[in-house]
Amino acid sequence: MDMSRRLLEQFLAVAEERHFGRAAERLLMRQPPLSQAIQRLERHVGVPLFERGPGGVRLTPAGEVFATDAARLLGAETAALDRARRVGHGFAGDLRLGYVSLLSLRYLPKLLRAAADELPDLRVLLHQDSSAAVAEMVRVGALDLGFIRDPAPVSTELTTAVFARERLMAALPTGHPLAGADTLDLAELSAEPFVLPTATALPTLLSELHLACREAGFTPLVRASADDLTGLLGYVASGLCVSLLTEALLDLPLPGITCVPLRGDSLHLESIVTAVHHPRPDPAVRRVLDLATRLYGPV
After folding, report:
1. CATH number at residue 289
2. Angle at 286 between CA 282 and CA 292, to 5 degrees
3. Which residues contact 292 (CB under 8 A, 6 or more apart)?
């Protein structure tokens, strides 16, 4: 005999009402089938669960124990079903989110706060890496969603969407003669030694920087390269180089570095932040992307 959810609910209704007639009314059924169901249950358990009397019924000691366990079992089943539905609809579970370092201060705090408020049962697990590494981890399934700065490393197996656009600025050593300017023309840096990202780390950004310099009438004198933000900042702070870095740096304390806005409306002086995921993301990914869109607006 299978103890179905319905049978346990019938037993608990009789236990709570202490009367077959009232329990049957509560369950929207006739009394004889209810009495027969409880009798079958008692035969299956092997001991009486109720003591019958002219005024109703009461639980036996075995019935008291069984009622406690039956209520716990129904509660656990309800919780399991609810959790499965919440995970299936993207309201609960784990979401593995990858990002590149500079996004951690400009975008992640607001997104994490909104996710905690609107999706309190969804746990966001963070992993910081290069754009290429984040994109590859999304491709192989090690991450569910990535926010990267350069779309070039993304496999054609994945879906990308522009998440944000940021203006590039001149990053200068604080003691540089041009560091006190309100704005600069990019051409004013034509004689300066540059530190630029490597082609492996940020190929699209590197290409755009070269195009911006060419548009300004010069080829940058590349003194050094680095495959991450800390390396680029280290070279600028050392006083050895200048660079072109995103306006998100304004959110950071940068000892030894001064950022100066660049004049002009060149499209090459723009850094694109891209969201990357599989073509059919799970519901949690869709909900976080929807949150990001509402927070920062479609780009």
Report:
1. 3.40.190.290
2. 145
3. 107, 111, 163, 275
For residue 31, give its domain range: 5-88
3 state SS of 173: strand
Dump pLDDT digits (tens) for 189-217: 999 999 998 888 778 788 889 999 999 99
| Whether residues 229 and 110 fall in one domain | yes
Alpha-carbon distance of 168 to 198, in angstroms, equals 17
Q: What is the pLDDT of residue 299?
A: 44
Which of 88, 106, 126 delimits the end of a domain? 88
Same domain, residue pair 149 and 185: yes
Strand partners, 128: 99
Indicate the Cα dihedral angle 97, 102, 105, 111, nearest 10°. -30
Residue 1 CB neighbour total at 10 angstroms = 9
**Lowest-confidence segment of 31-35, 76-80, 160-164, 256-260 by average pLDDT:** 76-80
Strand spans (E) along the chain: 50-53, 56-59, 92-99, 121-128, 145-148, 159-173, 193-197, 221-226, 243-246, 257-261, 270-277
80 and 214 fall within a common domain = no
CA distance 229 to 214: 23
Q: What are the tokens at 233?
A: 């900042």
Distances (CA, A) of 54 to 18, 37, 42, 112: 11, 20, 20, 62
Query: What is the three-class DSSP state of 274?
Result: strand
- Alpha helices by DSSP H, listed for 51-202, are 61-88, 103-106, 108-118, 131-140
Single-letter code of the amino acid located at 19: H
